[in-house]
């Protein structure tokens, strides 16, 4: 989402050697108006799946509620954790079924699928695109330029974190709809952890 009259944000996800990092800024804006300087856009769904989104806050919250509910129901019925690709496919169905009145979001689902790392982008109509890294929101063009130039396969956690912070900072410097710090959600095979980096 970008430009005047649409929600702004910079959100991204990338795969590194041991896991996935999801990140987003904290500013919630609508056109030129800043609604909040403390809006969370990174969400832990399970210990091995996370979600980061750009768009209307209410629609993000709807998606997160659906994702958490269905991940919990899957675990209850199947007696095992849902994997990241299955959750992305489920979210694709939810978004596509709402196409007549779409949820105004761009979403990245990241995590593990049978030991494999995955990052999947979903648009408002449920299109699925899987990649090594992705960026969405009004700052995505700036973010993708930095990622394209600097991303390497099998980066260490330190290298990946440095690239994520550099990427979001670059977007924040030029995109007035993004700002007010960076939330990180780091997902590995063993655990997930969250960190806030003030800017």
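^ Assign residues to that structure.
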């Amino acid at each position: 989402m970008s430009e005047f009259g649409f929600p702004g944000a910079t959100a991204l996800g990338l795969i590194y050697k041991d896991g996935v990092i999801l990140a987003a800024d904290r500013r919630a804006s609508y056109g030129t108006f800043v609604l909040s300087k403390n809006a969370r856009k990174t969400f832990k769904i399970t210990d091995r799946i996370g979600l980061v989104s750009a768009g209307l806050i209410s629609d993000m919250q709807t998606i997160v509620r659906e994702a958490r509910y269905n991940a919990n129901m899957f675990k209850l019925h199947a007696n095992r954790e849902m994997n990241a690709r299955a959750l992305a496919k489920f979210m694709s169905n939810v978004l596509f079924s709402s196409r007549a009145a779409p949820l105004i979001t761009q979403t990245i689902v990241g995590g593990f699928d049978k030991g494999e790392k995955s990052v999947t982008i979903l648009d408002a109509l449920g299109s699925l695109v899987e990649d090594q890294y992705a960026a969405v929101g009004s700052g995505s063009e700036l973010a993708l330029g930095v990622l394209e130039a600097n991303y390497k396969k099998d980066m260490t956690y330190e290298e990946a974190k440095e690239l994520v912070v550099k990427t979001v900072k670059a977007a924040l410097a030029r995109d007035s709809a993004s700002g007010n710090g960076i939330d990180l959600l780091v997902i590995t095979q063993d655990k997930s952890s969250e960190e806030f980096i003030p800017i």
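Residues 57-78 form the longest helix (22 residues).
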